[in-house]
């Protein structure tokens, strides 16, 4: 036992943490049974049943407010479930202490903000903290370096995290999560601030992680990416799972259009991959102010003579 | 467990090449790239420690009775059985050193270290650069205890009554602010700070009442207690305060790495295995202990806990493993200097040290505020 585990103030030693047993591919590592979550009397999740297996990448999609992040928060134990149960490696979340949970699942939240000016290297190294005092600790330097190399953030190592751009922060934070080397990876919109190249890089890494026998759960808004990289997708709608299964089955034009309340087209390429895009009207280019922007009230925008339809600017 | 990230079914030579590259990167990050900051940190520690030693000698040497540096050193060596230099040559030199100046200097060191560490701990544990022991009412609570004791003229513990009550009330106020801010087993930082504001207001009112109700001599005592002073520090007082401060300063070292993780925010820290509430509770306990014992004999000394950690964070970076001991040294150095100034600026007058630290600390903090606002990327 590391001396750092000493229980300051109480003078008692913490109990030892159970090290994780690597899951076998196909094992259910995370299970949600009839999970309801109510926050301030509002039902956010409604009877969620979901099992997540080692070796798969599961994407969670759905409109804003469908309960995606709440579901992830319930899985991490940050939001208490109103009813139902969530189990991790066959035991309820509450049966594990914080360090044991950290050895089993790593979490990337949206917008990780850092209070003090830590360098990227410091931040990634923080991912190793659950392993402090275990034999794995001796590989910290290698793991940290390779996690940064994978996300192409090695060159950022000495930069102060808070001085990075959104996409760079995303990569640094993702490196930290990789360095944690937990068999379950939970990612909440990891690609949000990234450019296309790094979005693809991140999903590719998630894929590699899953193919190595780990479980990856990722919340994504880019439906194409979800379709391309996932084993299964879960489509959430108003706190329920509207559909769960292979991307080709779940992502149909009719279902997506209904769930997002917006016409969405799903095309299938010759190789079977999906192209998913909202139906958009043809845009008339270079109209030069022939229509007013419909903001009501007195606004300091160009004014037009609507009645005559001349489109003549009056100011 | 092996890392699940070692995956790609690459060819053997490619894998070896990658491995070499990673090892090179690891070496870079582990050694080469970290050297500047390590060097800087070591230098900072050396400068602070050297400064503290020099200040101790200077402060012991100068005053109404001037004792040359070599005689100060000689006296110290004599005490530990080495007869390298001669002790004080003038009458009462030995007495002035060992009964007046050294207890006072040691008290300043101990209190400064306690306040510096407590400040760094508070800022770390709440991930908020504005947190300061005063925020959660340690100082004002202690002041209420001291004021009541002075007003009522209690002496059930003899000369220790006022310090003991100050200590107890400081501890009580801090823990009650913490417990009041806690709800459903969690504490919101903003709630905590606002609870502190409310409790500080009540404490302020109680102090005002004590000041109002007290007869003139007691009123003076109450007012001067709140301005802080190391005047009249004795070895027996040091013996009471020092052990608590030493224990506190050592205890926080074991929290350092987890405090770093809190900079990521509460939830990410929890995801990395930190029991955030437990860490907070223990930190508050240590802060209450450190600051209550620090202010018990010396009164309120503001701004040390706020300014010292900020300044050191700029120099050695935000990692708590270095920041906490550096804040202890920095706080000790700052208070030895401040106490020296309080003693010698005006002849035959002992300025209140709390007044001095606030006078210098206020504008300095303002400068820090401007500086960190102008930098993108928050607090340095």
Automatic annotation (TrEMBL), chain B:
<feature type="transmembrane region" description="Helical">
    <location>
        <begin position="192"/>
        <end position="215"/>
    </location>
</feature>
<dbReference type="GO" id="GO:0022857">
    <property type="term" value="F:transmembrane transporter activity"/>
</dbReference>
<feature type="transmembrane region" description="Helical">
    <location>
        <begin position="102"/>
        <end position="122"/>
    </location>
</feature>
<keyword id="KW-0812">Transmembrane</keyword>
<keyword id="KW-1003">Cell membrane</keyword>
<dbReference type="InterPro" id="IPR000522">
    <property type="entry name" value="ABC_transptr_permease_BtuC"/>
</dbReference>
<feature type="transmembrane region" description="Helical">
    <location>
        <begin position="322"/>
        <end position="341"/>
    </location>
</feature>
<feature type="transmembrane region" description="Helical">
    <location>
        <begin position="134"/>
        <end position="154"/>
    </location>
</feature>
<dbReference type="Pfam" id="PF01032">
    <property type="entry name" value="FecCD"/>
</dbReference>
<dbReference type="GO" id="GO:0033214">
    <property type="term" value="P:siderophore-iron import into cell"/>
</dbReference>
<keyword id="KW-0472">Membrane</keyword>
<feature type="transmembrane region" description="Helical">
    <location>
        <begin position="285"/>
        <end position="316"/>
    </location>
</feature>
<dbReference type="GO" id="GO:0005886">
    <property type="term" value="C:plasma membrane"/>
</dbReference>
<feature type="transmembrane region" description="Helical">
    <location>
        <begin position="42"/>
        <end position="67"/>
    </location>
</feature>
<keyword id="KW-1133">Transmembrane helix</keyword>
<feature type="transmembrane region" description="Helical">
    <location>
        <begin position="235"/>
        <end position="256"/>
    </location>
</feature>
<dbReference type="InterPro" id="IPR037294">
    <property type="entry name" value="ABC_BtuC-like"/>
</dbReference>
<feature type="transmembrane region" description="Helical">
    <location>
        <begin position="160"/>
        <end position="180"/>
    </location>
</feature>
<comment type="similarity">
    <text>Belongs to the binding-protein-dependent transport system permease family. FecCD subfamily.</text>
</comment>
<feature type="transmembrane region" description="Helical">
    <location>
        <begin position="348"/>
        <end position="369"/>
    </location>
</feature>
<protein>
    <submittedName>
        <fullName>Iron chelate uptake ABC transporter family permease subunit</fullName>
    </submittedName>
</protein>
<keyword id="KW-0813">Transport</keyword>
């Amino acid at each position: 036992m590391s001396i750092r585990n000493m229980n300051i103030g109480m003078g008692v030693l913490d109990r030892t943490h159970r090290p994780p047993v690597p899951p076998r591919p196909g094992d259910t590592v995370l299970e949600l049974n009839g999970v309801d979550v109510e926050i301030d009397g509002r039902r956010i999740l409604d009877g969620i049943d979901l099992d997540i297996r080692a070796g798969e990448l599961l994407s969670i999609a759905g409109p804003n407010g469908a309960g995606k992040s709440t579901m992830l928060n319930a899985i991490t134990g940050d939001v208490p479930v109103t009813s139902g149960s969530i189990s991790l490696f066959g035991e309820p979340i509450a049966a594990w202490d914080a360090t044991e949970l950290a050895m089993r699942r790593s979490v990337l939240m949206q917008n990780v903000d850092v209070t003090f000016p830590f360098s990227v290297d410091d931040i990634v190294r923080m991912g190793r903290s659950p392993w402090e005092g275990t034999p794995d600790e001796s590989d910290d330097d290698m793991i940290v370096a390779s996690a940064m190399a994978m996300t192409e953030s090695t060159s950022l190592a000495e930069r102060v995290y808070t001085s990075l751009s959104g996409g760079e922060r995303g990569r640094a934070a993702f490196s930290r999560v990789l360095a944690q080397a937990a068999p379950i990876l939970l990612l909440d919109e990891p690609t949000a601030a990234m450019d296309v190249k790094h979005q693809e890089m991140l999903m590719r890494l998630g894929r590699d992680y899953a193919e190595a026998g780990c479980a990856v759960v990722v919340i994504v808004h880019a439906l194409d990416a979800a379709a391309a990289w996932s084993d299964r997708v879960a489509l959430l709608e108003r706190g329920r799972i509207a559909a769960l299964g292979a991307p080709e089955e779940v992502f149909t034009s009719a279902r997506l259009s209904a769930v997002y309340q917006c016409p969405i087209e799903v095309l299938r390429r010759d190789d079977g991959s999906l192209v998913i895009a909202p139906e958009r009207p043809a845009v008339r280019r270079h109209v030069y102010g022939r229509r007013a922007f419909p903001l009501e009230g007195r606004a300091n925008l160009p004014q037009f003579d609507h009645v005559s339809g001349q489109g003549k600017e009056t100011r | 467990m092996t890392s699940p990230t070692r995956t790609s079914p690459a060819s053997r030579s490619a894998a070896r090449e990658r491995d070499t590259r990673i090892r090179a990167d690891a070496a870079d990050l582990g050694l080469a790239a970290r050297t500047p900051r390590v060097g800087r940190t070591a230098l900072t520690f050396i400068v602070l420690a050297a400064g503290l030693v020099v200040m101790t000698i200077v402060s012991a040497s100068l005053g109404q009775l001037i004792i040359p540096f070599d005689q100060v050193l000689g006296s110290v060596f004599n005490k530990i059985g080495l007869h390298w230099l001669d002790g004080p040559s003038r009458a009462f030199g030995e007495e002035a050193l060992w009964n007046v100046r050294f207890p006072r200097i040691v008290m300043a060191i101990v209190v400064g270290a306690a306040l510096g560490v407590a400040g760094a701990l508070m800022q770390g544990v709440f991930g908020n650069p504005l947190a300061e022991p005063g925020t959660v009412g340690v100082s004002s609570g202690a002041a209420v205890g001291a004021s009541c004791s002075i007003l009522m003229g209690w002496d059930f513990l003899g000369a220790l009554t006022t310090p003991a009550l100050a200590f107890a009330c400081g501890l009580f106020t801090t823990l009650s602010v913490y417990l009041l801010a806690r709800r459903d087993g969690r504490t919101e930082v903003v709630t905590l700070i606002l609870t502190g504001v409310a409790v500080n207001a009540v404490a302020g009112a109680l102090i005002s009442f004590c000041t109002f109700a007290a007869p003139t001599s007691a009123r003076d005592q109450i007012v001067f207690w709140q301005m802080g002073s190391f005047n009249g520090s004795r070895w027996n007082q040091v013996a009471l305060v020092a052990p608590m401060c030493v224990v506190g300063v050592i205890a926080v070292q074991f929290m350092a790495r987890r405090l770093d993780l809190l900079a990521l925010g509460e939830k990410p820290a929890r995801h990395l295995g930190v029991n955030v509430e437990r860490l907070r509770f223990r930190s508050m306990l240590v802060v209450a202990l450190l600051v209550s014992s620090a202010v018990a004999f010396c009164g309120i000394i503001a701004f040390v806990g706020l300014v010292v950690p900020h300044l050191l964070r700029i120099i050695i970076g935000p990692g708590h493993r270095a920041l906490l001991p550096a804040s202890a040294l920095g706080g000790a150095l700052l208070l030895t200097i401040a106490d020296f100034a309080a003693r010698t600026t005006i002849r035959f007058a002992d300025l209140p040290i709390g007044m001095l630290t606030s006078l210098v600390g206020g504008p300095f903090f303002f400068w820090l505020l401007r500086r960190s606002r102008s930098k993108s990327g928050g607090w340095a």
